[in-house]
Specification:
By secondary structure, the chain is of the alpha+beta class. It contains four helices and ten strands; from the N terminus they run αβββαββαββββαβ. The strands form two sheets. The chain has an eight-stranded antiparallel β-sheet, with helices on both faces. A two-stranded antiparallel sheet has the order 1-10.
């Protein structure tokens, strides 16, 4: 009988002979146990053991309480049991309309190329004791507004007699803009009002003030011209100067002089005028007089001349300066009379 022909290789089968699979390793539980102390002399290892005291009896334990009786579960009915997987179907299965292709050969190449696996970054273990990583921060939306009103469902109709009421929208005032306008316009208006109400100013000597009359004799006119020259030297930025001598029939005499022009620091100019007149009139302690007018400052002091005691008062604001020398009057009466003289002599464009 001739030998059988060699078997032809199947499509995709390797030409190399298939190696014989190695025998599986023998499991440890199937091996014969080996005594490691076989043949060793272990006679001297027996040691006398000390007698240990007997253990005390265990403490009495209480029995567990009996569980309460359980009531039957009154839940929904159990679902119907599923048919057995091996049971024949209730209806015969019709054969497929198209024949099913046989499975591909295990060694056949794939129909579509397989993409190589994507390499993942290595995971680095955190050192012991390190804090856990913080969760990623979620970005919040910067727009914070009221949610839009819910729309009515489709097909909804208002009931009969329903009248929609318009919702008045709340007005949001720009408080920041109002505060900025108040700071930018209110502060300059508060501090600038005394300036534009007191400057520019003009001076004119009236012939009569209360019971005082302006003297026009040569001696009084010469004294007035000398005082006006001294005012021009002391206040060389003055726009206009004035000086005059007033008297009444009782012998009370008032010499007034000053000038007009813009003054940025009226309080400092009032102190400077009193200091300039302190030497010629030998003035004593200076008193501050409240004028009641914002931006106007007044100073008074008692002095001495060859004719007797006098009171020197000066009043300065942003548009003018007026100084007077009084005889036979107190400090309070002199300050009040200077206020009346100033009102008649100095006039402002806004008044």
């Amino acid at each position: 009988m001739p030998p059988p022909p060699p078997r032809r290789r199947a499509w995709g089968e390797s030409a190399d002979p298939t190696p014989v699979p190695a025998a599986p390793p023998e499991l440890p539980e199937h091996q014969v146990p080996v005594d490691p102390w076989a043949g060793a002399d272990t006679g001297g290892w027996e040691l006398p053991s000390a007698e240990l005291p007997a253990l005390p009896p265990p403490p009495a334990t209480l029995p567990y309480p009996a569980p309460p009786p359980t009531r039957p579960y009154s839940g929904p009915p159990a679902p119907a049991p599923l048919p057995h997987p091996m049971a024949p179907p209730a209806h015969p299965v019709s054969p497929p309309a198209h024949p099913v292709s046989p499975p591909a050969h295990p060694m056949a190449p794939p129909a579509h190329p397989v993409s190589p696996p994507v390499a993942r970054p290595p995971v680095v273990a955190a050192p012991p004791g390190a804090p856990p990583p913080a969760p990623p921060k979620q970005r919040r939306s910067k727009r914070r507004g009221a949610p839009p009103p819910a729309a009515p469902p489709p097909g909804w109709q208002a009931p009969k007699g329903y009248m929609p009421v318009p919702v008045r929208r709340r007005r949001r005032w720009p408080w920041l803009l109002l505060l900025t306008l108040a700071c930018c316009c209110g502060c300059p208006a508060y501090y600038g009002r005394p300036i534009w109400t007191q400057y520019p100013a003009h001076a004119t000597l009236p012939p009569q003030v209360d019971d005082l009359s302006l003297r026009e004799d040569s001696t009084s006119e010469q004294a007035a011209r000398q005082l006006e020259t001294e005012v021009r030297k002391a206040h060389w930025l003055a726009e206009d100067t004035f000086a005059g001598v007033y008297a009444n029939p009782d012998g009370k005499r008032v010499t007034v002089f000053g000038g007009t022009g813009f003054r940025l620091d009226p309080e400092g100019d009032a102190d400077g005028e009193i200091a300039r007149l302190a030497g010629p009139y030998r003035l004593g302690e200076v008193e501050t007089v409240d004028t009641g007018v914002r931006g106007r400052h007044e100073r008074c002091a008692v002095g001495h001349t060859d004719g007797g005691d006098v009171v020197v008062c000066t009043s300065v604001d942003h548009g003018s300066i007026a100084t007077a020398v009084f005889t036979r009057l107190s400090v309070q009466d002199s300050a009040a009379l200077l206020a009346r003289l100033r009102t008649r002599i100095v006039t402002n464009d806004q008044s």
